[in-house]
Amino acid sequence: MSLEKSLNNQGFLTTSLDFVTNWARANAVWPMPMGLACCAIEMMAFAGPKYDASRFGSEVMRFSPRQSDVMIVAGWCTYKMSHAIRRIWDQMPDPKWCIAMGACASTGGMHRCYGVVQGVDNFLPVDVYVSGCPPRPDALLNALMQIQEKIKNEHSTTLDT
Amino acid sequence: MEKNISLLDKANPTFFKKHQDALLKSLEDKHTTVELDETDPLGTRMILNMGPQHPATHGVLRLLLELDGETIVRNRLDIGYLHRGVEKIAENKTYQEFMPYTDRMDYLSPYSNNVALCTAVEKIAGIEVPERAHYIRMIGCELARISSHLLYLGAMVMDSGAISFFIWTFRERERLYDIFDNFGGHRFTISHSRIGGVHNDLTPEALSMIREFVDTFPAEVAGWKKLLNKNRIFIDRNLNVGKISYEDAIAYGLTGPNIRAIGVPYDIRKFDPYARYDQVEFDVPTRLEGDNLARYFIRVEEMLESIKIIRQCLDKLPKGPVRADNAKHSYPSKDEVYYSMEGMIHDFMMTDTGVCPPDGVEAYHAIEAPKGELGFFIQSDGTGHPWRLKINSPSFTNLQGLEKMLDGEMIADTVVMIGGVDPVMGDSDK
Amino acid sequence: MTKKEKALQVVETIKNTFGDAVLDTGGHAGDTYIRIDSKNIHSVLSYLKNELHFTYLTDLFGTDRFTSEERFEVIYNLVSLKTGTRIFVKTWIEEESPVLPTATDIWPAANWNEREVWDMFGIRFEGHPDLRRIFLPEDFEYHPLRKEFPLLGIPGSFELPTTTPNTE
Q: What is the ipTM score, two decimals?
């Protein structure tokens, strides 16, 4: 807000700045793979040679949360693991997004029992849900493209983060 | 001046306090506590937590290593980060409904897990499976074995440093996925094998794809062997790493390629053959050294043996039905379900009640999964739901051996050793 | 000799050596089991390992029979690599504070399996070097594989992380 006021509501300037920032952020989304179970294998295939993720900007899978933009939760999340996932989410710097990959991360999937958290959105703010068990790597690429759409529509310059 | 500071004061965990306390207490000896010398930093020991989220731990495995410099003095493994209580789920589902859960256990070679459950249920209920289904199951199992060993190869060599290997093995895995996609409908967790046989026959296109794979794969492996077998860096990283003695291997109950690396030729396909393995010729590669390099050699040889088995199966594939015809034992074919009343009723009964083994009996059947001996122990109470289904998973026992193997090794070898033992956490944390 | 005959021979030897400790024998579809009294289980297992060469412990697990007496059952799956035989040894224990002697001094492979039985059923093993839960965190207070534990769990038995960011 302060930036707009200080520029005397020159909307044209902030939207152009937005366009450039969003273009830069959307085309360099580095994922942090929280690969827990079978969806992790499809995530590896998504980064592999046939469904190449790096042509969409996800050049490297950064396993360190401090260097990544999007966290892909792939696989069922147990109560024991949930604290570790939340801790890693907190360590990621803003701006960050989250993809819940697969039926198990979205809603608990076929595992309706005592050990599994019924959906990772019980403790994480998820942006895109991908269905499938496991989803094809094409579906994960679609999710990545939707995150890119979401980024391109943000008002990055005037955002508080 | 030395002060006895307890590890628990230093760690101060913020969640699951009792669990972290118990784990750290067990790492300390009962009789001595770790003495942390505040004045001389070189005299202390460090507890390193290779946490559940780590690029190289093959899933969610947590290791607590007590280090003296670079050597691991004691270690504890914490598993259960992927525990979903699959055995409890099994008590509420029919045997066929449980099939997709077996896919997701050892998710690198899902076809073998399906065959394991099918053979166990067929043993307890006394179901006859037609010949063609046996051979199709064998082809599927061996393709799954190649797929699992390819991922082992890619991951372990990537952990040793050569990252492009991962891309090459994934390219081959994509070819296998195409084969599974063609006859099974899904890339890997296919649940193709059903109780009483197999879901559908192999299409001619799938057969030609398998033949093409079998013809071109050995040349690829020969190229990789030329790269790795005499490579100074690879051998230096793997020779004499993770050695375990003969007595320890049997005492700790290791299975699969890990126990064959130390000289015990224990392979369920030869010990207690299932699904016509006694009618194909193959060798069981065994080595005597017991270190990581031996495990690598064994797995590469096993891939080539699998190619041999698939070739023989393709030649011997008999004509016939692919599922048992008995209405109480297996699902009817879709033609019968759509076009006849009995077929529809049988389908309904199989879905609702399922296969009913006799009351009060129990049976155990194991198969040779790529990771080791995967066994299902079923206790039946006469209904379509098992009373108790216990899964004897190979990764659980292999990880116990890993806890023993890590003592005395250097910390930089931890990653290579985990890769060498090749655990899958979905399998070990049932 | 076939596998079945070798297993039956083992059963005969155990019956002759231990007499009345053997409560039941049987088998279905090619397996063979022996049921032993829980007081003599340790000596039978030692005899099986030392005299009859059953050096490989494949599996150790528990079952909840859900009967009013002798509710729990512990089964040992043993393999003799020398003779190529597999045999199952079972024992029944009562529901009130179930205790069994540990098998870790006979086979170190029993370590994690006994921890799993403790975790899932609540059966203690005397003499176990490190009896902690293995799959579930120690904070969890129940034993899930008992038949009275609901499949969906008990709400509140596990803590979930908070949704407000922890900026430490």
A: 0.92
